[in-house]
Amino acid sequence: MTDDSRIEELSRWVGQVLEMHSSTELLKLAGDAGFRRYFRTDTKPSLIAVDSPPEYTKPGHFVAIADYLRRNGIHTPMVVSADTTNGYLLLEDLGDTQLFGVLNNDSVEGLYAEVMSELLCLQQIPRDKTLFPNYDAELLLTEMRIMPEWLAGKLLGHQLSAKEMELIEDTFQLLLDNAANQPHTLVHRDYHSRNLMIREGERPGILDFQDAVWGPITYDLVSLLRDCYIRWPRERVERWVFAYAATAEAAGVMEPVDPERFLRWFDWMGLQRHIKVLGLFPRLSLRDGKQGYLSNLSLVIRYVLETAGRYSELKPFGDWFADQLLPLIEQQPWYSDYRSAGDSLR
Question: Is residue 337 packed enough to be buried (19+ CB in 10 Å), middle (13-18) or exposed (0-12)?
Fold first, then answer.
């Protein structure tokens, strides 16, 4: 079925679900990094219709996780109706106000307090092993290996030597050990400012949860506080990190841990995530034709080089990246100086 015919079929299906006499007009919304497409209905109240092709996505899994999280008190969109065979979903509309759009120096303390409180609730949810697989070494490593393939090789045209690959793989192993040594909880896996919706008088709405896993406690925290789309001063981030660790201990989410050890978990987990993103965004551009992500790589590069430069074990990786890849990156049309990326707060 073509894209246009799927939209027409989705429109007819929504009309049938809502017991209307004709198909429903659908307004296309910005999509995510996956294969789903989102539309707002012209009904009152409006709803979100989702085209979730079953050959690329798992619409039944999405519905099951949405239901499980809602039953455990998390504000995910209510599933109004679902045709999981054809990949059509009708969801509650959580509005247009992303956390990203309302963050500034004045609002960030209160808003982050809200979404970190929500994250703590998420981490206290009991595990359902059928829904949440382990965020194991194999998956974490597969994610990081996207970087040498898609950034170094396919985007920059840099042929990695055996010595370079050894350095990269040794660094990856350090990051895998760091992930394994942390307490494990439910991990949303993309808990950042563009997946958190803000509405007056309501708890934050949470989107894009379908890839949730069971993994390291710092993963979602670093996704939020070292967001690929907005940056905060390190001193402020560290204060939030220490406060979160203390709250997680008090809530029984983890046993007491030395603050500096928790910060190291956080920093190294962030490096794992940002290495993944360094490969993911080029792949979205080259393979999927989604060009808008590349302009965010300068901030991600800043995170990578700052973190790698802070720890002696990671410094060889940072030095290699700065010496070998950065000169090639600087020639890219999307590149802006990484040293000031994210400095212009609203």
Answer: exposed
- What are 215-243's pLDDT values in tens digits? 999 999 999 999 999 999 999 999 999 99
Residue type, 194: R
| CA-wise closest residue to 229 among 97, 330, 341 | 341
Distance, CA of 267 to CA of 274 (rounded, Å): 11
The alpha carbon torsion through 335, 336, 340, 342 (nearest 10 deg) reads -70
User: Coil, helix or strand for 26?
Assistant: strand
Q: What is the pTM of this model?
A: 0.95
Helix and strand counts by DSSP (H, E) for the chain:
13, 9
Q: Please state whether the peptide bond connecting residue 45 to the residue before it is cis, i.e. omega within 30 degrees of 0.
A: yes
- Contact criterion met (CB below 8 Å) for 158 and 168: no
Q: What is the pLDDT of residue 4?
A: 79
Distance CA 193, CA 100 (A): 5
Assign 80 to helix, strand or coil: strand
β-strands 47-51, 37-41 pairing: antiparallel
pLDDT per residue over 200-221, tens digit each?
889 999 999 999 999 999 999 9
Domains in the chain (CATH in brackets) are 3-92 (3.30.200.20), 99-340 (3.90.1200.10)
Average pLDDT along the chain:
95
Enter the tokens of residue 220. Answer: 């979602």
What does the alpha-carbon distance between residue 129 and residue 214 come to, in Å, rounded to a whole number?
9
- The CB density around residue 13, as the number of other CB atoms within 10 Å, is 19
pLDDT digits 0-9 by tens, 153-183: 999 999 999 999 999 999 999 999 999 999 9
What letter would DSSP give residue 296? G
How do residues 11-55 score in pLDDT, each as one tens digit?
A: 999 999 998 756 678 999 876 667 889 999 988 899 999 999 999
Residue 263: name the closest of 182, 196, 144 by CA: 182
Distances (CA, A) of 267 to 158, 223, 225, 302: 27, 11, 11, 13
